[in-house]
Amino acid sequence: MAKQGQPPRLALEGITKRFPGVLANDDVSFSVAPGEIHALLGENGAGKSTLVKIIYGVQHADEGRIFWDGEEVEVANPKVARRLGIGMVFQHFSLFEAMTVLENIALGIDEKYSWRELQQRVTEILKTYHLPLDPRREVHTLSVGERQRIEIVRALLQKPKLLIMDEPTSVLTPQEVERLFETLRQLASEGCSILYISHKLHEIKALCETATILRGGRVVATCDPREESARSMAEMMIGGSLRDVSRKRTADFGPDRLKVIRLSAPREGPFGVPLKEISLNVRAGEIVGIAGVAGNGQNELLAALAGEMDGAEHGAIFLNGKACIAANVGERRRDGMCSVPEERNGHGSVPGISLSDNTVLTARYRMGLTGQGFIRYSAAEDYARNVIDTFGVKATGPKATAGSLSGGNLQKFIMGREILQKPDILVVSQPTWGVDAGAAAAIHQALVDLAAAGSAILVISQDLDELLALCDRLAVINGGRLSEMMEVEGISIERVGLLMGGMHGEDDASAALDQEEHSHAA
Amino acid sequence: MRLKLEARREPSRLMLYVTPALAVLLTVVAGIVIFTLMGYDGLGAIYQIFLTPLVDPYRWQDLFVKAAPLIIIALGLAIGFRANVWNIGAEGQYIVGALAGTGVALATWGMEGYWILPAIVLAGILGGLAWAAIPAFLKTRFNVNEILTSLMLTYVAIQLLFYLMRGPWRDPEGFGFPQTRLFTEWQTLPIVVPGTLIHLGVPMAVLIAVVVWVILSRTITGFQVRIVGLAPQAARHAGFSARSTIWLALLTSGGLAGLAGIFEAVGPFQQMTPQFPQNYGFTAIIVAFLGRLHPLGIVLAGMVLAISYVGGENAQTAIGLPYAATGMFQAMMLFFLLAVDVLVRYRLRLVVPAGARATHERPASGQPAGAKAPEPESASA
Amino acid sequence: MTTAILISILMTVVGAATPILLAALGELVVEKSGVLNLGLEGMMLIGAVTAFAVTYSTGSAPLGLVAAMVASAAASMIFAFLTLTLTANQVATGLALTIFGIGLSSLIGQGFVGLTVPALAHVFPAALAEDPIWRVLFGYSPLVYISLVMTALVAWFLTRSRAGLILRAIGESDEAAHSIGYPVIGVRYLAVAFGGAMAGLGGSYYSLVLTPMWADRLTAGRGWIALALVVFASWRPLRLLGGAYLFGAVMTLELHAKAAGVSVVAPEFLAMLPYLATIVVLTAISIAPAGGRLAAPACLGKPFRATG
Fold first, then answer.
1. What pLDDT sits at residue B2?
2. Which domain holds residue A314?
3. Cα–Cα distance, A81 to B37 (Å, whole number)
4. Are residues A300 and A378 in the same domain?
5. CB atoms C179 and A99 under 8 Å
6. DSSP-based helix, strand, coil % in chain C, nearest 5
7. A170 touches chain B (CB under 8 A)
8. Is B372 in Cβ contact with A76 (below 8 Å)?
């Protein structure tokens, strides 16, 4: 769709950005034509996010030039970017939970509208692009898809000439993704360029005309994704051949290792979701998945199973047939259940202390790292070294602080710390979130091997592809309730997507939008 | 050019040790400037505050006697601060501890026996413990902020002291002065270095420091305290209860403050008077931070603060520097410590202004005015 | 007769409430921006002593008030620089500010102990201000009216103005506000300075109006009560007004009981009342379902450092 003879909407020349110890962007150059949907593709840590932050003026390049419609510009801050016509939808939404949609939109734009005017314009945009959203609701009551729409409306209010989408689909249901793509195609057809950042290859194949691939901060290839295979792009992204996770599927599982009956629990924090009567079972040798959009009770489920709720959960939990609802974290660990929470920094590990000390956190119960109230430092150090060696963690040694490790290496360390305890039951949340492909493959393989050795594994993940590749059965969590269990073989993706969306929130918002239109017309 | 803070990948170990000394040094320099500006002999004031207590061997005993309560209280506070439990009402626990011990002393007045002093000291510990249990209960049961409750209770404790001194506990033979009778020899702390004021509380302070050091650095309890403070969620994941940590921190710090209080009452004071509160409970906060919440650091910091107390008295008599200056001086030490603390986590770097960067050969076109506003996060030099 | 007593009691309540209302209003704005400044007591003392010293030396009370605001705001900038620029711990820095304020005020106050200044003049004509009935509306110090106007202004600013919206947003999520392009640190500096100036005003009420003389530590922990009041009010200015007058009433109880020579209860126990009331009230608000907790700004007390 790029028109001949026109200067590119955006051109980067030799952009370089250094952080202490890291070269985030190294001489990056590429351009985006008017009306083009351009993918920026790369693994976690490849430098995509830094690059778009530079384009949007949140960060500043150490070297290099930015051209806008053929003229060199300096994007000092996001305000300048917006004035140029750059709109941005962040991966982690820049939203204010305790405020209304309209307040959030007002905060995200530079023009000063009166409330009435703003409400009118917002309603118009919601109608034009078929975005269901109620401007009067407070953000913490909204689904993730609805939150993203706030960001999109914010960007569209400025009539952008370039819209940057940073990992927009990582938290959406398949149906929400489809709806988003329609909006983006409509925008592109109106002449707005779109810079689409993702590592999801099939989405890029479906949406984009050009792809710039980053690896280690450098541009390694530019291609037309429609003519490439997902595999070929993946290999350009990771700079090597993909390792496949090998798993022998069997239907031959042992007895129930984990059995949960009508487990309920209160919300964690003001914006959490309470669990409502969750029942499930995981057998020896089996991997069971819990799919769902973030913020539907996943954190509560992990906390309730691991015993982190200080007795606030009720229902029944059996570990190897032994009731443990009243047991605390340590007792459950001793009874054979280990867990890995979603958040690595500050939940799964403490960034400021050494890897050796980090093993004391969760491995002390099963690995004898304490005695008579004293910490056995040498035992902890040996165990940490064992984890580092066995799982190929890149670290200077057991004395390195957890915070000094990259995301993927820290995740490997945490997974290794639990797996080497040979748990009968392992509950993991988002095992490969924000982890590079190599580490992700290693983690998946480790989970498969642990199951093969007879452990029961429960994987909570927002990444449906991951669950489909890994699990024997899966269920969907939505609003703190769990759907029925489904065999992964022959599962209907559409049905899973609908369960993930829950349908409920969408209906509310659409109804509100209709109402808005009515009152506007009247 | 301006100074820019750049995050270190790991906190600097060297700076951890250097910064407290740097803070004391900066305080000295700032003190000279400020006292000179206020019309005092700045250099003389600093000499009096920081050096005379050290050069005069006769005042060494005062240093130890002053440092002991500061160290004992600060050790307890450090446990709390490490766990993010902000007991700032140590002054109140100090007073109530002393009052509880005094109660036992008055009840056993005139009796003889080796059991009396331990009973008084135990009552002191329990008194401080009980006073700290109130914020602990309110925090764990109702999530009430312990900063405000522990502090409010300090004001309550002061009034309680005044009431007891004016009323029920007044010395019947004291000519109506609002103070208790003098404690008997069975009720007072023994002197450990004959011919000086150095009482049993001084070696006890060192002993407690060693015990706390072992607990914090070697035991799972010390580990728990540290993890709860660093990462509450990780602590929960590790099976450390936040509730028990709050109780532990507040009861320990309250008990130790109570101990310091009763040592002071049966040591230097030998009776209870309305002048008993000396602000040690607040100064100990400075001691805890200056000692980096480390037991051995706290022993050193306690000595530094004791020097400033004794030196402050010297400066008062020698050059007429008001005693209030000591408090301000001590607060400045904490300010400077908090300021130079930044060097542990960040390094300072000189940055050449954006306009002078070599990458722009020709002026950028279309650049809006004011686009080169300094980044808000950088410290201007 | 009873009307006269009632009016006198009412006026004492207002008098006791005004300084904590002023200081708490400032702190409310500070906390709404996501910063917890525990140095309120210290800043009030600095304000009190500055107001007194300047009024005594120049003979001009308005000048004293301005000087108090400037001095306390300046002291708050120490806090701001340490916590905002150098990302020091806010609790520790606030405590340091209070200890500093106690020392500094008593150092400056040395030469003024026991001296008095003429109280602040009335705003309204004497006919109204000294009328036995109408003085209940018109007979207060200008600071009382200023505190009421400021309550309305702060309420309007936070809920109706765009700047207030931005300030709240920064307190709610500094990361998000930064990524949209708002100057998080700059706004917080301004908020802390405002908090300092208001604490200075509150402090000067003690040294210029309530007891127009200087005494060491004359705020007697009222700064901490003001801090508690912000929590009690769930960060809402109008509830703050109510809370301040409630505390004013508790403190008045003490004064009047003392004056009336109530002998059943020792005066020391009456003096404990405001502090005990603070604890009770804080507990009550924490027990209340959907109480203060949701209303607290999400970023309160957390250090912020922009990346890049």
1. 64
2. 256-491
3. 49
4. yes
5. no
6. 75, 0, 25
7. no
8. yes
